[in-house]
Model the fold of this input.
Amino acid sequence: MSFRKKMEVIALQLPTEKEYQKNLDKLLLLIEQLDDKAVIVAPEVYLTEYDYEHIEAAASFSAKALDVLKEVIGDQVLVLTLMLKEGDGYINRAVVIHNHTIVYQQEKVKLFKLGDEDRYLEAGKQEDIGPFEIDGVKYALIICFELRFKELWKQIEGVDVILVPSRWGLPRKSHLEILPRALAVMNQCYVVVSNSSDADMASSSAIISPNGEVIQDDESDVVEGTIDFGEIEKMRRYIVMD
Done:
């Protein structure tokens, strides 16, 4: 558990423009404006969305954008996913940037067939999903559709904060509100969900406490909340899950 008592976190809730650079510029502006917040989570593939028609250009831009973001991210933690080229194929990779360095990365394992992800992207390895630590805080990452898989929940038990970058569709909005809340209560931790606000997406970005309390505002680009490490400790002390 972190030595800190509290930590300010942000779940971004942004639409993706067709012009990639506009998305990067928007993200850079928000990073600058929110420089007092410890953690910022961006929606899944926010910079390019799943632009399969121009996948090579999207991957090339994402790689260059990653270099820019590493330059600007110092004390903060930035979490986002990017379509990147890997060998002869393409992947959806979550990266965690801190102190100008990628401190953790993880490929999306469960590809969403309804959205043709399996046709264009290569899946990561499930055994690579697990806890990681930054400044004494134990984190884990679940990417969008992966929320539906209980075996992945088991792999990340015991962390303090679960980060969920998403591009979750509007028809299943209620699922995006139910699953992370259940995950927070079951794991007695905080869950930070950042989802796209494109017209066909669910929004529903949220910061959820170990007690299942939800901070959510579908009308805002920025959802703000506080991780209270005392709440995690209290829940785990009084409701013992052994």
User: Anything to note?
Assistant: Residues 112 and 145 are 6 Å apart (CA to CA).
